Amino acid sequence: MKIAVTYENGEVFQHFGHTETFKVYGVKDGKIVSSELIGSDGSGHEALAGLLKERAIDVLICGGIGNGAQAALEENGIELCAGAKGSADEAVEAYLRGELQNTGANCDHHHEEGHSCHSEGGCRGCHSEPEFTGKNVGKTVRTHYRGTFNDGSQFDSSYDRGEPLEFVCGAGQMIRGFDAAVADMEVGEIKEVHLSPAEAYGEHDPNAVFSVEIARMPGAERVSVGQRVFLRNAYGQPVPVKVVAKDDTTITFDANHEMAGKELNFTIELIEVSK
Prior knowledge:
alpha+beta, Nucleotidyltransferase, domain 5, Chitinase A, domain 3, five-stranded antiparallel β-sheet, 15 strands
C-alpha cells in the first residue's frame, strides 16, 4: 500500500492544487516501512491525480482540496482523506489507526501553476485571522477571474477552465490583493484591480539566487537551465528552485517564486457568496 501526503516542512500542506512536494509512505501490515519525497513536476489540480496514479498511490492525505481534484482522484481509484493538519507522519499514523476523518472537498484554490497560495510571507492556511475587513470576509465566495501582466499577456483565467474559483475570503487562501478586492464586492459585480508585487507574490529577492559548484552536487550534471528541481536546506527540508544558469563548473539556482517582483492585473467577477 502507498499513501501520499501533501508535504511542506514536515507538515501536511494545506492546498492540494499547489502542492510542490508529496511524501510517499510504503505501508505493509498496517505499519510504515518506507518513505520518500517526490516533486509534483509542476502539475496542478486534476493533473496531480494522474501523477499519483502513475506512482501507484492508493491513498492521498491532504488539507484543502476542490471538487474537481476530488473527482479526478476518484476516477483514478485513489482514496481521499482531506482536512488533515499538522505533522505528515502523525497524519499517516492516525489514518492507519482509523482515526483520520475525511472532510471531502473543502477548499478550491485555483490559479494555475501555484499562484493562489504563495502570498508574501508564505501561506497562512485556511483558518487564519483576516488582514482586512469587508462583508464577504469569512464567507465562501465563488469568482471568475482573468489575470494579466502589464503588457496585456494572460497568465491565468478561470473563464478558460470553465470553473469558478472558490475560496474563503480573508482566510489567507489567496494572494492578499486578490482577497482584499473581493471583500466588499456584490454578487454580479465585475472589478478591475492592479496589484503591486507587495500585494501579490512579493519582491524578487536577489539573496535567493545562488550558485553551487557542480562537483559538490551529485546529479547536477544532468540538470538543464530552466528546469525546476528540489534542493534540501540545512534541516533536510525540500526547497523548490529553478535552474537559471549553468556552465562547466557552476550551476545557479533561483529560489524566488516565479511571480515574485511582478505587477499583476485581475478582472474579478463575483459569482456567489455563501456562509
